Amino acid sequence: MEIKTFKQFLIEAPLGIAYHGTPYEKAAQQILKDGVLKPNLRKNGGNLQPMEGQTYFTTNLSYALIHGLGANMVGHKINDNIITGGEYGYIFVVDNSKMKNHIPDEDIVGEIARDIIDDEDSYNFTEDEIEDVIDLIHKSFNNYMEEDYERELEESPYERFINHEYEFFAYVGKFILNKASKRLIIRFRQNADQYSHSGDTPIKEAYKFKKKDSEFLEKDGSNFKQYATKIR
Predict the structure, then answer these.
(1) Burial class (CB within 10 angstroms; exposed 0-12, middle 13-18, buried 19+) of 52
(2) Spatial distance between the Cα atoms of 27 and 21, rounded to a whole number of angstroms
(3) Which of 187, 177, 189, 194 lies closest to 136 in space, CA to CA?
C-alpha cells in the first residue's frame, strides 16, 4: 500500500522537546555525523517497516529509553541475549516546536483504534469520529492482500489486530493515516505522544547510556541523566 508523505497537512507540533532512541551503535554514529535525524527511505519492508520519508520521535522519555534499549526493560535487569546493536543505547533530543508537518506514529494510531473497539469512551473522539475510525478499520482489512505475506496465518489479519499484535496495529495505523481526514488525524495526535515528521530533523543534544544500567532507571526516565553521558 502506498503511503503519502502527509506534507499537505502541516500540523503544528506542541512546544517543547522530543526524543529519538536507538539501540544501534552504527545508526547513532551516523546521526551524530549528520547532525540530523534522516527519514526512512526504504520501501516494501512489511507492516512494521517505518513509513517512507518519516523520522520518528516521542515526547515521552520512557518510550525513547525503550527504543534506546531495544526492549521494554526500563527499570529491569537486561540479559545479554536481549542486547542488540552494541553496549550502549542512544537518546537524541530534538526541538519539536520547529516541526510543521508531523503526524502520530502509525503504531499508536492502530493501538488507539483497537482500544476504541472495546471502549468508545476511552479517548476524546466524537460519535461521528468513532464511526469513521471503525469504518476505516474494516476498510483496511478489505484492502488487505494475503499474498503480501510469506507465511501461512493461523488467524486472520483482523483477528491478529483484535488480539493486539503490533504488526497489525502498524498496518491499520498506516491505512488510517493514508485515508483519514485531517480532522481525524489531529484527533489521533491529541491522544498520542509518539510522532513522525517528514524530512530531516536537527538534533539539539545526544546522550549514550550503558544498557546494563537499565535496572537502575526509573520507569519515567526521571533519573536518566545520572546514568548517561552527554555526547553532543
Answers:
(1) middle
(2) 10
(3) 177
Q: Mind listing the pLDDT tens digit for each residue in 48-63?
A: 677 777 888 888 899 8
Sequence spans of domains, the chain = 17-105+194-230, 106-190
Q: How far is Cα of residue 63 from the mean position of the Cα atoms in its chain?
A: 9
The helix (run of H) or strand (run of E) holding residue 162 is: helix 157-162
Q: Which fold has domain 17-105+194-230?
A: ADP-ribosylation fold (3.20.170)
Report the C-alpha gap between 44 and 169 in whole angstroms. Answer: 17
pLDDT in tens, 127-151: 999 999 999 999 998 866 554 444 4
Whether residue 90 contacts residue 227, with contact meaning beta carbons closer than 8 Å, is answered with no
What is the band of 100 on the pLDDT scale with cuts at 50, 70, 90? Answer: low
For residue 1, give the C-alpha cell: 500500500
Tell me: the pLDDT tens digits for 5-46?
A: 333 333 344 457 889 999 999 999 999 999 998 887 666 566
* Residue environment code for 159-197, b if the CB has 16+ CB neighbours within 10 A, otherwise e: ebbeeebeebbbbbbbbbbbbbeeebbebbbebbbbbbb
Distance CA 70, CA 89 (A): 8
For the entire predicted model, the pTM comes to 0.79
